[in-house]
Structures are given as C-alpha cells and as structure tokens.
Amino acid sequence: MTKVVFKVGGSILQELPKAFYELLIELKEKKICEPVIVHGGGPEINQALEQMNIESTFVDGLRVTTEEVLEVAQMVMSGTINKRIVSSFQNQNGKAIGLSGVDGNLLQAKQIQNGKLGFVGEVTKVETFWIDMILDAGGIPVISPIAAGEGETRFNINGDTAAGAVAEALGCKLVLISNIPGVMETIDQKEVIHHHLTKKDVEALIDSGVIYGGMIPKVRSALASLQGGVEESVILNGLEPNDILKYLDGEKVGTILSEKEFEHV
Ligand SMILES: Nc1ncnc2c1ncn2[C@@H]1O[C@H](COP(=O)(O)OP(=O)(O)O)[C@@H](O)[C@H]1O
Ligand SMILES: CC(=O)N[C@@H](CCC(=O)OP(=O)(O)O)C(=O)O
C-alpha cells in the first residue's frame, strides 16, 4: 500500500479535530494509504521554555538549541506531544506506536552547517526498518523529531525537515498539515492561495517577504525532499480534514510544491 508521510505542525496540534484522526485511521483501514506521522511542537516548546524563563530564539525559522533547550524540546515533543497524539489515535480505535528519532536510531543526524544554532541537526539517515515493522504489524507510527548523533549526542530537528527526510527515505508523498490553507499572498487587496509552487516561485516569495518565519523551513524542506525523490509535497489545513480527501482525489486544494511548471495561483 502507498505510504504517505503526514507532518502535523505544532501550530495546529492542539486544535486538530477528532475527524482528522478518524480519517487517517479510515485511510489505512480502507487501504487507500498507509499514514506515517511526524509531528512538530514549536509553540509548546516555547511555552515550556517561557515557564523556565528561557528565551526562544530563531534563525530563519530554526530554534537556537542549547543543551538545556534540547532537553526541553525532547521532553515536550517526545513525551507530552507524542503520547497525546498516540492517545488521540487510540481514542478512535487506531493502533498508534509513538517513538522519537533516537529510538532504534530511526533518525540519524549531524550538526547543521551554520554555527549559530547549537544542537540543531540535519538528517543523514532514516532507519526505515522500524517504520515498516510498525506498519506491517498494523500500527500507525508517530515520530517526534529528535535525532541521534554520534555517541550520546542528540539533535533537535525541525519537524518539516524530519518529515521530508522520512518521506524521502520511504520514497512517498509528503503532506504538511498546518494552521493555514496553503501559501498565501495578498494581491490587489485580496488574499489568494498559491495552489502550485516551484523552487523558483518559492525563492522569489521568500525574497519578497511573502513567505516568512516557520513557513521558510516548511517550503524549503518540501522542495529539498522533491530533489531527494519525493514525487510531490502539499501544504494543507488541519482544521479541514476533508481537504486531505480532496487532495487525494486530485482536487485543487492547499499548496502543491512540485518541480513541474504550473499556472500561477
Ligand atoms: N505566505 C504565507 N502563507 C501562509 N502562512 C505563512 C506565510 N508566510 C509565513 N506564514 C506563517 O507560517 C505559519 C506556519 O508555519 P509554522 O507556524 O511553523 O507552522 P507549523 O507549526 O504548522 O509547522 C503560518 O501560521 C503563518 O503565520
Ligand atoms: C530545529 C527546530 O527549529 N526544531 C523545532 C522542532 C519543532 C517543530 O518543528 O515544530 P513546528 O511543527 O511547530 O514547526 C523547534 O524546536 O521548534
């Protein structure tokens, strides 16, 4: 069965309707696709850090991650959030298995070449064996983006980047679930959704400031995974689970990132 990686963004995690979990379970039961979940958790990490009086700092949408911040990110994502998603699936009678990228060396990483971000990694290898094992046993894997480095080093990975790497390794589609209906732009005082974007379009929208903040790593990792063999990536609104069905049915919804040339907007 075709696998699909669903990245669930931190922006929407706490508001996802029951229908979202029901739909993913149904897709699996009806053998439409095999969902693999990768999640983020930025806002909840911010909250936890704030309670500890630690400031959150980002460079191009990536969190500057000291050792202390890494421990908090791991606690929040691999603990609280991961288990909450697993419970939400199980509440709808789905079988979900939560694991972090550290478990079984599922996500292996090295420090990102930037120098300013601390323990932020880029994925060097995905041990897909564990994902396939869970899928073969009828489960839904739920993966948090903390990765294993050399020795006991661990890295904080942006959720979109981790999801892109998993989709690449599985050679499947990547669906990025967020709190917006797609990449938007105000043109002639009207807000429009860009339904199709290529790398060239994306870089122009970043340069002009239309795409900013957390949307930057989202579109960049979606594009990077296309180069790594992912056939298509799409950004969809988590509040509208039906958009997932519409997308799978080929309807014009969300923002599709692809190297094919499409009509604009
Ligand atoms: N052009 C754009 N269109 C839509 N959202 C954008 C755009 N540029 C930046 N954003 C911001 O990106 C956010 C989504 O990124 P992020 O908060 O990292 O999401 P997630 O947590 O779902 O990964 C949106 O809520 C919005 O604030
Ligand atoms: C390196 C880095 O920035 N890691 C992210 C991981 C969480 C994430 O990506 O969450 P979203 O889905 O909310 O974007 C962070 O620490 O916030």
From TrEMBL:
Q: In which pathway does it act?
A: Amino-acid biosynthesis; L-arginine biosynthesis; N(2)-acetyl-L-ornithine from L-glutamate: step 2/4
Q: What is the E.C. number?
A: 2.7.2.8
User: Which reaction is the catalytic activity of this chain?
Assistant: N-acetyl-L-glutamate + ATP = N-acetyl-L-glutamyl 5-phosphate + ADP
Which residues does the record give as substrate binding sites?
41-42, 63, 156
The record, for InterPro entries, names: AceGlu_kinase-like_sf, AcgluKinase_fam, ArgB, Asp/Glu/Uridylate_kinase
Q: Where in the cell is it found?
A: Cytoplasm
What is an example of a Pfam family matching this protein?
AA_kinase
One GO term under biological process is:
L-arginine biosynthetic process via ornithine
> Main EC class of this protein?
transferase
Q: Mind listing the UniProt keywords for this protein, alphabetically?
A: Amino-acid biosynthesis, Arginine biosynthesis, ATP-binding, Cytoplasm, Kinase, Nucleotide-binding, Transferase
Source domain of life: Bacteria
Q: Which SUPFAM superfamilies does the record match to this protein?
A: Carbamate kinase-like
Q: What does this protein do?
A: Catalyzes the ATP-dependent phosphorylation of N-acetyl-L-glutamate.
Q: Which PANTHER family match?
A: N-ACETYLGLUTAMATE SYNTHASE, N-ACETYLGLUTAMATE SYNTHASE, MITOCHONDRIAL
Record protein name field: Acetylglutamate kinase
Biological source species? Oceanobacillus oncorhynchi
